[in-house]
UniProtKB/TrEMBL annotation:
Keyword terms: Cell membrane, Cell shape, Membrane, Transmembrane, Transmembrane helix
Family assignment from sequence similarity: Belongs to the MreD family.
UniProt source species: Mediterraneibacter catenae
Gene Ontology cellular-component terms listed: plasma membrane
Main location: membrane
GO terms for biological process, alphabetical: regulation of cell shape
Protein name: Rod shape-determining protein MreD
Origin superkingdom: Bacteria
TM segment ranges: 9-30, 75-92, 104-127, 139-161
Record Pfam families: MreD
């Protein structure tokens, strides 16, 4: 039973690390009009509504901490934002169905919008940068659209990995019954 949990932790850590490396190395080359998709947010939200608030918070904290380390302004800023995103998406675990892609797309789009607004408020508005419509039209909405487009590719892969891990967990649990 412990080996299955360790396997889930290792697979989750590898997914976070791969998403981070893709976001830092590959996605800047895919930047369109200064906007790139937020792969770390896709992973955080997906783990939240697939596995619940607790795992969403852990994945969000780890993802945010990696981004904090990369940007280096304040350690914990993005970790807190991603942690909250993982928790809120985890609250939708009860109404989440694997077959329906509408809810994950809606949740990831909403999370990205709230993320963009939160980052604007906490980093720009508090420094007296009041050009909200420019930021909304040039960064928040295009990033949300781009993130949704990438979600259509990444989410089925995350769903497949989650199904494999769940079937292995169920098979392992049935051995003890």
């Amino acid at each position: 039973m412990k080996a299955v949990k360790i396997r889930r932790i290792v697979v989750t850590a590898v997914i976070i690390l791969v998403a981070y490396l893709l976001q830092c190395s590959v996605f800047p080359a895919l930047e369109i009009a200064g906007v790139k998709p937020n792969l770390m947010l896709i992973v955080t939200a997906s783990f939240g509504f697939m596995r619940g608030p607790r795992e969403g918070m852990f994945v969000g904290f780890a993802s945010g901490l990696l981004i904090d380390i990369q940007h280096g302004d304040m350690i914990g800023f993005y970790a807190l934002i991603y942690l909250a995103a993982g928790f809120v998406n985890g609250l939708f675990e009860q109404i989440y169905f694997d077959e329906d892609i509408k809810l994950p797309l809606f949740l990831i789009a909403g999370t990205d919008l709230v993320y963009g607004l939160g980052v604007y408020f906490l980093t720009f508005l508090l420094r007296s940068d009041f050009n909200f419509l420019y930021y909304l039209n040039r960064i928040i909405i295009p990033e949300t659209i781009y993130t949704i487009a990438i979600t259509l590719i990444v989410y089925p892969l995350l769903l497949f990995i989650n199904h494999k891990l769940e079937t292995e967990e169920k098979r392992s649990a049935s051995k003890f019954v």
